[in-house]
Amino acid sequence: MKKKNIAILGSTGSIGTQALDVVRAFPEMLEVTVLTASSNADLLIAQALEFRPAAVLILHAEGYQKVKHALGHLDIVVLCGEDALQEVVQRPEIDLVLNAIVGSAGLRPTVAAIKQGKDIALANKETLVVAGQLIMDLVKQHNVAMLPVDSEHSAIFQCLLGEEQQAIEKIYLTASGGPFRGKDRAFLTGVTKQQALKHPNWVMGAKITIDSASLMNKGLEVIEAKWLFDLSVEQIDVIVHPQSIIHSIVQFRDGSMKAQMGLPDMKLPIQNALTYPQREANEFERFNFLNYPTFTFEQPDVQTFRNLQLAYDALRDGGDRACVLNAANEIAVAAFLEDKISFIGMSDLIEATLCQQKKIDEPSLEDLLAVDQQSRIVARDLIDKIQIK
Ligand code: NAD
Ligand code: MG
User: Fold this and answer.
1) Is any atom of ligand 1 closer than 6 Å to the C-beta of 208?
2) What integer is the mean pLDDT of 240-246?
3) Which residues bind NADPH (predicted)?
């Protein structure tokens, strides 16, 4: 069998390193041909020495000489910068691009890869939040596979296999509720980044960990689900399931429900996307019912965790609203991590940015890239001027 050649964008991150664990487990099936990172030169070098890709890319110029020096004498092309990132995903040998970049920075490489006919394994949910309609149009036009890596979407994807002709009534995206589940607004006012960075069930990158604590992650996932599975807003429900074993549920028009379950380990959905359509044997820990005698479910508290409501509203309002929401959220999370705004100040900042940015109804890709940049400027200004704390 021909090996699948994979480009891993964001290989030094949480998803990226776990993806390399998966590749390590299936050396006869998966081949790494491209690795990219933002700034962690040392880890990128170590990964390249182990996996010997055809090309590596480091985004920031500071690390470039170091990577070049370490790998230059080998048969590995060393690249740097944003433009080269668009180009490297188009290399002819690549079959599948795993996009594990964080934030809207993942959008342009996704577009470049799809246009070149590459299949996509998508962890970078922000791509679909910012430009879901345009991306899914491109996926159809270029006839590529869009394989979800996000655990909830992988669950829905798996539940839908063999059901392609069946009408979906609705889906339930499950949410752990994060570290502040059950807390009230007064409590949230004073929470620190150390508290917010402690997720009960998953170890992930900083941005998605804060998004999980604020429920913005679930909001982004509602938007991601809308585009991946071509659903209306009304067909997407969120249900809090603190055990994080049921990864999501599809309800068909006859009322029958299919759920996908497993231990909370991102290697499972990553493997699923990388080896699709095969299911390969692995040694991951198996689920034991006796460790989980009870599954519980709750309604998400959108009054306290306003970000989830803001995301639903942005999706309903359409046009460029989810792009603005996402950009403002990226600035809000960074500001919270720098102690510039409070935890609940993040929602205020996102709402204020949405109010300030005039809506565009049918944005092009260029419009969305501009709106993304503009919204970041507006959000940063709001932190400095109006002093949202
Ligand atoms: P992370 O911060 O751990 O890693 C991000 C990776 O992207 C790093 O390799 C970094 O070098 C690279 N990167 C950062 N900024 C970049 C830029 N501007 N341009 C190019 N590369 C850049 O993040 P993560 O937790 O691995 O998450 C990655 C994506 O996967 C996010 O969209 C996240 O929402 C999604 N996701 C993550 C998890 C998880 O368990 N970590 C689960 C589901 C979905
Ligand atoms: Mg998820």
Assistant:
1) yes
2) 98
3) 12-15, 40, 124, 126, 205
**Signed CA dihedral, 138, 143, 144, 148: sign only:** positive
For the segment 37-49, the average pLDDT, to the nearest whole number, is 98
- 121 CB less than 6 Å from ligand 1? no
Indicate the helix (H) or strand (E) that contains 80: strand 77-80
**CATH 1.10.1740.10 domain span(s) along the chain:** 318-389
Q: Is the ipTM of this complex over 0.90?
A: yes
How confident is the model over 161-171, as a mean pLDDT? Answer: 96
- Looking at the DSSP bridge assignments, the partners of residue 4 are 30
Torsion of CA 147, 205, 94, 372, to 10 degrees: 80
| Residue 221 is assigned to a ligand binding site | yes
Coil, strand or helix: which one is 169? strand
Nearest protein CA to atom 25 of ligand 1, as residue: 205
Residues of the chain with CATH 3.40.50.720: 4-148
Residue 58 near ligand 1, beta carbon < 6 Å: no
User: Ligand 1 pocket, 331 CB below 6 A?
Assistant: no
**Mean pLDDT value across residues 268-285:** 97
Class of domain 318-389: mainly alpha
* Conformation bin of residue 358: beta by default, left when phi > 0, alpha when psi is -120 to 50: beta
Reference 99, options 118, 84, 76; nearest CA is 118
HSE-CB of 47 using CA atoms within 13 angstroms: 33
Please report the atom of ligand 1 found closest to the CA of residue 202.
Answer: 40
Do the bridges between strand 168-175 and strand 246-252 make them parallel or antiparallel, or are there none, so unpaired? antiparallel
Indicate whether residue 44 lines ligand 1 (CB < 6 A).
no
Report whether residue 16 contacts ligand 1, using a CB cutoff of 6 Å: yes
Residues with CB under 5 A from ligand 2 (ion): 150-152
Query: Structure tokens of 365?
Result: 């890709």
In angstroms, rounded to a whole number, what is the distance separating the alpha carbons of residues 196 and 208?
Answer: 11
Q: How far is the CA of 22 from the centre of ligand 2 (A)?
A: 18
Q: Which residue has a Cα nearest atom 27 of ligand 1? A: 102
Fold (CATH) for 4-148: Rossmann fold (3.40.50)
Question: What integer pLDDT is reported at residue 228 of this predicted model?
Answer: 98
* Separation CA 355–CA 76 (nearest Å): 48
